[in-house]
Fold this sequence. Notes:
23 strands, mainly beta, 3-stranded antiparallel beta sheet
Amino acid sequence: LSIQETIWIDDIDPQDGYLTNQEDLKRYWNLDGEMTLENKSLVIKKGNITRLKLYEPNQPDFSNDIKLNAIFTPQTPSYQISLTLQNYEGKFEISIKDNTAELFVDGASHESKSFKLSNNQIKVEFYYFDGDLSCKINNEILFKLPIVKKFRDAKFNTSQHIAIDVQNGPVAVSNISIKRDIYYKVSSGHNFYDMTPFYVPKECYVMIGDNVTYSHDSRGWKLCTIDIPEKGKVIFESQSRDVDGKGNTVIVDKHGNKYVINGYANYDSSEGYPFVHEKYIVGKALFIWWPAKRGLTLIR
């Protein structure tokens, strides 16, 4: 089992994209050119929309993998569209002109292919994932090629961006969707290491929280020791430590005894304690309740 497993996170409503209202669109994208928002579609006569923040710049644990989806409906027989995805591996562009798509890598033409419209629409999935660049048009893979990593420990760079550009329109753009590939990251002091396999003991489980960056879960759980005056050494699990409404530290030891310590108290020593034995699992998860906009969802 490796701690770096992959899930796609879509940060907007997948049905309407950013095109529900002008305010949402402007909050995420820079708009430049002749365009109007009409019935959940952005009709671009000539111009581009650019998103500079692929990731949160203050969050160090970003992933370089990203997917851009959109549906284009040309309103004239002749049209020209381009999609750009630039991350720290390079700049990748799909240029679509009159039913022919051409892939550019770092400004150089790589390959071109023709395709057919589907109900006068062009459904594009353009993504970089685990070192591979891929592009689907109307559910057919047109391009797929491995990209050699240029930088292994890159930092957030404001030149990273995604863009949609219409050079010859008008073209209606709808169902814009961005998916980020989020990894469960580990950092200094955690029980596991990135891309390093670890082994789960028999009849034990690894517990992973829903916040991929900050959840206090098996990555950080410790078996701690603290010396409490008049009580002696107390052993407790790090996830049992809490702070009450008065700012006091509350811990529960391995026997279920509760201790309240004035003020914030840290532990004296600790050791990794990442696994939960099945005998301590007393219930079964039934529902997903967050994000709230999805409502209460029954787990299959």
